[in-house]
Amino acid sequence: MTAQAFVDCTLEVADGVATFSMNRPDTRNAFTPSMRQDLVTLGLRMRDDPTVRVLIITGKGTFSAGGDVKAMKAGFDPAQARRFMLAHHEFLQPLIELEMPVIAAVTGAAFGGGFSLALGCDFILATPKARFCSVFGRIGVIPDMAIMRTLPRMVGLQRAKEICYTARVIEPEEAKALGIVYAVVPEDRLLAEATALANRLKVGSKLATGLAKKVLNGTFETDYATLAGQEASLQAVCLASDYHKEQVGRFNRKEPLPYDWDALAKRAAE
Questions:
Q1: In terms of residue numbers, what domain contains 129?
Q2: What is d(CA 55, CA 197) in angstroms, rounded to the nearest whole number?
Q3: What would the mean pLDDT of 52-64 be, rounded to a whole number?
Q4: How far apart are the C-alpha atoms of 11 and 44, rounded to whole Å?
Q5: Of 153, 181, 201, which residue is a domain's last?
Q6: 67 shares its domain with 189
Q7: Beta bridge partners of 124
Q8: For the chain, what is the domain count?
Q9: Nearest Cα to 135, choosing from 127, 126, 143, 124?
Q10: In this structure, what CATH number is given to the domain that contains residue 259?
Q11: Average pLDDT for residues 12-22, to the nearest whole number?
């Protein structure tokens, strides 16, 4: 295991799984300048580390309350506000586009930008104490940090409008029913369950999963001909990979394939 200290966060890497924890419960893990810089650093580290196959993002005490409302007291002029908002995408876009599975392990508040960060992950595990809210409307601003892109893809346009317009709190079970949350897990099992999911996902081809994620992230904007072209080009890359060749060899030798989701789940439960 390797551990890396940031300013407000920690990053631990063990056996191909990276766990990033936001550790400022006193600010409810708000996106202070130092927190934003830690998230930028995280994206760069994950992009450049070939040993990491799955990333888990979590928060100590709570996931994240999003924007640092206390810092808003000073106000912004329009040009300053625009630069401030664009700065958030310096960490959010690279995390969304990471070519590996990303799991959000959420307890407590995932409000505002915290909700946006969770939605940018591939899977959200939540405890019964988790709460989700597109809180922006309460202070008279629009939903930001790409939530108007990610949320409709999860819940559909009409429900996304309702969640954004009302700025209401979504409980974990409703979030699961809506397709926002992958699973609701006990509080004391949150990281264990996230790690168990990561340990199954990491057995698959990082290349194939990353390329599939890249296509899926843009699928709502992609016409059929473009999709067919992407499939052909990316499949050619996967067919030439060592992972693919090894699994075909196993199949032809009638040996079990390592990436068997049901078998991996059964093994994890034993």
A1: 2-201
A2: 11
A3: 97
A4: 13
A5: 201
A6: yes
A7: 104
A8: 2
A9: 143
A10: 1.10.12
A11: 97
Among 116, 112, 67, 79, which residue's Cα sits nearest to residue 96? Answer: 116
Beta-carbon-side half-sphere exposure of residue 83 (alpha carbons within 13 Å): 4
- Residues pairing with 106 in the sheet: 126
Q: Is 62 exposed, middle or buried (0-12, 13-18, 19+ CB in 10 A)?
A: buried
| Whether residues 196 and 210 fall in one domain | no
Q: Are residues 78 and 118 in the same domain?
A: yes
Those residues with Cβ within 8 angstroms of residue 171's Cβ, 6 or more apart along the chain or in another chain: 131
Cα 197 to chain centroid, rounded: 13
> Are 183 and 262 contained in the same domain?
no
70 with 151, same domain? yes
Among the candidates 156, 174, 201, a domain finishes at: 201
Other beta carbons within 10 angstroms of residue 100's beta carbon come to: 22
Work out whether strand 54-59 and strand 17-22 pair parallel, antiparallel, or are unpaired: parallel
- Spell out the alpha helix ranges (H) of the chain: 33-48, 78-96, 113-119, 147-155, 157-166, 172-178, 190-201, 206-217, 224-239, 242-252, 261-269
Q: pLDDT, tens digit, for every residue of 198-257?
A: 999 999 999 999 999 999 999 999 999 999 999 999 999 999 999 999 999 999 999 999
**Tokens in use for 129?**
């104490």
pLDDT tops 90 at residue 122: yes
Identify whether residues 8 and 116 lie together within a single domain.
Answer: yes
Q: Are 63 and 110 in contact (CB under 8 A)?
A: yes
Q: Which of 72, 193, 162, 182 is nearest to 118 (CA)?
A: 182
Residues 195 and 210 in one domain: no
